[in-house]
Specification:
The protein is an all-alpha fold and about 160 residues long. Helix content is about 65%, strand content about 0%. The longest helix has about 40 residues.
């Protein structure tokens, strides 16, 4: 017995669905393709063709999930990298919570963060890493300059802008 419900559930999850005017248009194209141009009707597919189509439709979802997993791991690595530069020790739960807060309201779970939000968070934390690294390097240069001046007997006082 064919499971048409499974077909339509998978059809809703197909990448690129929004490129079609309707789900029916995508359905016809998929059926036409798997039947080698014989039909556009789901009912007219042989059992072998139907189950081949179901298998093919499951594959992009596995790839999409794999892509999302890679993106999640990149976000985790970028956030960990930022805290490493700042010499702050954090755990995975803290990093996930930071990502959820960065995703904004409406997101309460790390795995519920959308692809576009994950990409934005990843890019933002790469920028944060660069800024933190530059600040760390500038602090090191200031410390080195102060040490060299102290060795030459010159005392300096570093104050922030606006301070007297």
């Amino acid at each position: 017995m064919r499971n048409y419900k499974q077909f339509y559930v998978l059809l809703d999850k197909q990448p690129g669905l929004s490129q079609y005017e309707s789900k029916d248009e995508l359905k016809k194209e998929l059926v036409y393709s798997v039947s080698n141009g014989r039909t556009e009707s789901l009912q007219k597919l042989s059992n072998k063709e139907f189950y081949k189509l179901i298998g093919l439709m499951k594959e992009p979802n596995k790839q999409a999930n794999s892509e999302m997993d890679k993106l999640r791991k990149r976000v985790i690595a970028a956030i960990f990298g930022y805290f490493k530069i700042r010499e702050q020790e954090v755990d995975i739960n803290y990093v996930k919570a930071v990502a959820v807060r960065a995703a904004g309201s409406g997101v309460s779970n790390f795995n519920a963060i959308t692809k576009s939000s994950l990409t934005a968070i990843y890019n933002q934390f790469l920028k944060y890493q660069k800024v933190a690294e530059n600040l760390k390097n500038e602090e090191a240069i200031i410390d080195m300059d102060a040490s060299l001046l102290a060795l030459s007997g010159i005392e300096i006082s570093v104050t922030a802008k606006g301070e007297a």
